[in-house]
From TrEMBL:
It comes from Thermobacillus xylanilyticus. The chain crosses the membrane at residues 12-29, 35-55, 67-98, 118-138. It holds the Pfam family Vut_1. It comes from the Bacteria. Keywords: Membrane, Transmembrane, Transmembrane helix. This is VUT family protein.
Length: 182
């Protein structure tokens, strides 16, 4: 496979992961692990941070922002078409833009092997994604789907799943030749 085909494939996989995350979240009830509430698509949302790192590795930081913008628009459109409320759609778009941009900037600045950059930047993006989405989209500040008493559990539940995805992704990346180089 040529480099150009590889770059296009990585970008398409990144964009597809956004759609899959939205569809799974919309179609399946949140998972409950004790006190924690986790949208079913959280696993895929965690994967988007890892795939975004590969996009950046393939096309560079500046072009990655074009991919993030395209993914944000695709995410918002998918959310809206799946019947999400305006609050949820807006929360999804804002959260995506902020968390993916944070991931990009942290990934760019770390001078560590790729596996560690994937872990640290994805963890930061996951924290921002979890907090912002729950506050803007689900809490009484937004759509009012969750009462204040459930907000902390919803944030922690998402964070646990996304952190697990980042750790698993970083472990896989570490096995790749590119994962061990800065």
């Amino acid at each position: 496979m040529e480099d150009a085909d590889m770059r296009i494939g990585i970008i398409l996989l990144y964009l597809a992961s956004i759609v899959v995350a939205n569809v799974v979240t919309a179609r399946f009830a949140p998972l409950e692990f004790g006190a924690f509430l986790v949208p079913a698509g959280s696993v895929f949302i965690g994967a988007t941070f890892i795939l975004r790192d590969f996009v950046q590795q393939a096309i560079g930081r500046k072009r990655t922002y074009a991919a993030i913008l395209a993914a944000m628009l695709l995410s918002a459109a998918t959310s809206w078409l799946l019947g999400d409320t305006l609050w949820i759609t807006a929360a999804s778009a804002v959260t995506f833009l902020v968390s993916e941009s944070t991931d990009t900037e942290i990934y760019s600045r770390l001078k560590l092997p790729m596996a560690w950059r994937v872990l640290y930047s994805g963890f930061a993006g996951g924290v921002i994604d979890s907090v912002l989405f729950v506050l803007i989209g689900l809490s009484p500040l937004g759509a009012g789907i969750l009462p204040w008493e459930a907000v902390g559990s919803a944030i922690l539940g998402q964070l646990i799943v996304k952190t697990g995805m980042q750790a698993a992704g970083a472990a896989v990346v570490r096995m790749l030749p590119v994962g061990r180089t800065a």
